Amino acid sequence: MKKIIIDDGFQDYLVDGAKFEGHDNIPCLLKTKHVIPTSLIPFDKAKTAKNKRGYLHFYIHDCKYSDILTNTKKYDEIISHYDGIITPDPTITIGMSHCIQAASTYMNRAIGYYEQCKGISVIPNVRWGDASTYDFCFLGIPKHSIVAISTHGAIAKNKSSQNLLRRIFKNGLKKMLEVLEPTDVLVYGYMPRDIFNEFYGITKFHRYPSEFEMTHMKGVK
Fold first, then answer.
1. Above 60 in pLDDT, residue 3?
2. Measuring CA to CA, which of 102, 157, 167, 198 is 20 to 30 A from 190?
C-alpha cells in the first residue's frame, strides 16, 4: 500500500530536535552569542544585494517572503551568504484569532531554530499584539540575549482611536523587556521619545532606518 504523505504547511523538519514552550508548543531557539549587525537587508533583496555584510530581515509585506514559510530549504544557499538573519515577522493584528497569532509566532521560532541548526547566526524578532498575546509571543526566546523589533507601521498616531496602536506597542515593549531582559534591542524604524525614553536605562537600543524612511523621508521626527 502506497504511503500517503500529508503536507500540513508547517514543515515538521524545521523543528527536529527542538524543545517547546507553553500551551501552544512554541519552538525554543538555541542560546547563542551574536554581534550587533552592521546593517539590515530586506529579504526580498537578498538575491540582488551587492553588500552581503549584514543580517537579512523580514520587515516587509508578508507576501514578499511567504515562500520561505512553506519552502524554507529553497533559501538555504542564499541565506548562507549573509552574516545572519532576523527571524520572520508574520503579521499579528488586533482582532486576529488566537490560533493564527500563535501560528505566526510558531513559524517565527521554527524557521529561526532551523537556520541555527544550519549554522546561521539568528537574532529573534519579537512581535506582539495586545495583552492577550503575551502568554505566547515571548516564548522560545532565550533571556539576556539580543532581540529585534520593528516600529514601522506599528506606531502610527490616530486621534480617532486615541493612538491605540501606539499604546499597544509601548505596553508590549515594556512587557517584552520585563520578560526577556534583553542585553540589546535592534529597532527597525523610528524611535519616538514618548515611547522609548523611559526604557533607555534598561537595555541598549540600536536603531536601523526603515526602507521607507531612507527612500521617502529626511531626518528623524
1. no
2. 102
Q: DSSP assignment, residue 126?
A: -
Comparing CA positions, the residue from 110, 30, 35, 41 lying closest to residue 82 is 41
SS3 state at 55: strand
List the beta bridge partners of residue 188: 150, 208
| Strand-strand pairing, 122-123 and 84-86 | parallel
Residues β-bridged to residue 185: 147, 205
How big is the CA angle at 91 (ends 89 and 92), to the nearest 5 degrees?
115
The string of pLDDT tens digits covering residues 10-51 is 689 999 999 999 999 999 999 988 889 999 999 999 999 998
pTM: 0.90
Residue-wise pLDDT for 5-17, tens only, equals 445 556 899 999 9
Cα–Cα distance, 115 to 125 (Å, whole number): 14
Amino acid at 69: L
H or E segment to which residue 174 belongs: helix 164-180
**What is the percentage of the chain residues whose pLDDT exceeds 90?**
72
Contacts of 63 (CB under 8 A, 6+ apart): none
Q: Is 123 helix (H, G, I), strand (E, B) or coil?
A: strand
* Residues 86/57, Cβ–Cβ less than 8 Å: yes
Using alpha carbons, select from 100, 165, 87 the residue that is nearest to residue 126.
87
